[in-house]
Amino acid sequence: MTIGLRDDSADVPLRGSRHYRRAQQDRGTETRQRLLLAALDAFGRYGFDGASTREIARRADANLAAIVYHFGSKEALHLAVAEYVVAQMRAKKGDLLVEIDARLDAGDVDKATVRRLLQRVVDIQVETMLGDREVDLWGRFLMREQMEPSPVFDVTFSYMMQGHRTMRRLVALLLDQREDDPAVAVRVFTLLGQVVMFCVAQPMVMRSLGKQEFGMSDRELIRRIATENIDRIGGVPLVRDAAG
Amino acid sequence: MTIGLRDDSADVPLRGSRHYRRAQQDRGTETRQRLLLAALDAFGRYGFDGASTREIARRADANLAAIVYHFGSKEALHLAVAEYVVAQMRAKKGDLLVEIDARLDAGDVDKATVRRLLQRVVDIQVETMLGDREVDLWGRFLMREQMEPSPVFDVTFSYMMQGHRTMRRLVALLLDQREDDPAVAVRVFTLLGQVVMFCVAQPMVMRSLGKQEFGMSDRELIRRIATENIDRIGGVPLVRDAAG
DNA sequence: GTCTATAGTCGGATAGAC
DNA sequence: GTCTATCCGACTATAGAC
After folding, report:
1. Quick check: is A58 in a domain?
2. Distance to chain A for B183, nearest Cα, Å
3. Residue B188: which residues within 8 A CB-CB, separation 6 or more?
């Protein structure tokens, strides 16, 4: 930590000045961010125990000791990842949930509107679970937490429940049932499940579609079918007799 | 371990005889089975790396060395678990898939029948994923394999694909689409997903239903809603105008 | 802030008694 | 078949140089 104070340092301009400290600080922040993303990938893919700090550091192009320096411990890194994921998720769909809750509180919604809102939720669900680049890592991390609850579970769980509660309100309205009816909760999970499936069973999906990774068109297809299924629950009458 | 060979041993008759060896052998088989079930639980819950052989042996009330004795290595134990799960699964729903394929090959199916067959598949899906006692462990193990493909993946994958292919045939008939249409594959995954969700997100489901574990009534509810959704895809006309 | 070296722990596998 | 004792490798975390 004394390098920056040496007088003979050539590649660091304005040594000892605010600019130099800023540069050093930025470098640290970048390292921290790279570690965070590498950890997000590793924890989501291999779980807490399966992911090794050595591998995370290597993938982040950082030193092993940097993890302890920036986060304190492997567990603390895990928590940081969870908080990061939840924060990113909230940034992506928090506004929509707040907007929906507000409209529901105000009570100015007919069923057609409710269905449209539900579709927007599922839309965003597809985006935040199957999105490209970094986004798909969030979904896998959250699902991993579900299958293998860790001390971090409360962080992710409370976030997941927020979305669940809002969806339950929508579905309850759509089906004229009580919000706390177990059937409503179950139906919400089935709606989520049809999207989640593509996140947790990605290898099987890929192999069965004959692809290496999701493209825009795949996401569009999933989105279309998932939202189509919204049309088919509640509101739309079931004409059994007309069926084949 | 020497008790059985002592002359004053009263509870082990016919020492050294065939009966004695039989008893010893049975004991070994039982130990093997206990190890298998403990490993099934541990691998499903914590993954291959997360599960420790020491813990598995402890839970199976067996010795650490017994794992190597009965299976050869931790990896071999993992493979044995995968083969066990697939064998159990096939025993539970293999017949139905064979029957369906035969009927589809014969071609004597109208849409109503197809829909009924599809519902039976989902029915059995619920049973083999959310069943009580041991059965729920199978589902979790398979899903874990999906999220975290291991050298064992091929064993579980080929089994999963068998069911997937049959379901794709059914859905294709129901929607008058080609079997190899990606939209058909995607729809099959959404159908599976609504059941799988309850397996992978069990902690969240429990907490949101306010329960400790699934009961018969919960499984019934899930089954009802899942099969209801079958009614709502294909065959049943969508009466948009009548919607609210 | 970054890095090397290392202490301390744990997990899988082995040897050999019984 | 079962069990104890032990080896060896991999991992997390720490200390301290730069």
Report:
1. yes
2. 7
3. B164, B167, B168, B171
Please name the residue whose C-alpha is nearest to the C1' of nucleotide D11.
A52
Residue B143 inside a domain? The answer is yes
Chain A nearest-CA distance from B9, in A, is 46
pLDDT digits (tens, 9 = 90+) for A152-200: 999 999 999 999 999 999 999 999 999 999 999 999 999 999 999 999 9
- Give the CA-to-C1' distance from B124 to D16 in angstroms: 62
- What is the extent of the structural domain holding B128? 82-235
CA dist., res. A35 & res. A38, Å (int): 5
B58 touches strand C (CB under 7 A): no
CA–CA separation, B177 and B145 (whole Å): 31
What is the reported pTM?
Answer: 0.86
Domain boundary among A71, A102, A135: A71
- Report pLDDT digits (tens) over B29-67: 899 999 999 999 999 999 999 999 999 999 999 999 999
Q: What is the domain count for chain A?
A: 2
On whether residue B76 sits in a domain, the answer given is: no
Q: pLDDT for B139-195, tens place per residue? A: 999 999 988 889 999 999 999 999 999 999 999 999 999 999 999 999 999 999 999
Q: Report the residue from B47, B140, B164 with minimal CB separation from A47.
A: B47
Verify that B121 and B225 share a domain, yes or no: yes
Distance, CA of A67 to C1' of D16, in Å: 17
- In this complex, the residue of A149, A238, A244 whose CB is nearest that of residue B232 is A238
Verify that A83 and A122 share a domain, yes or no.
yes
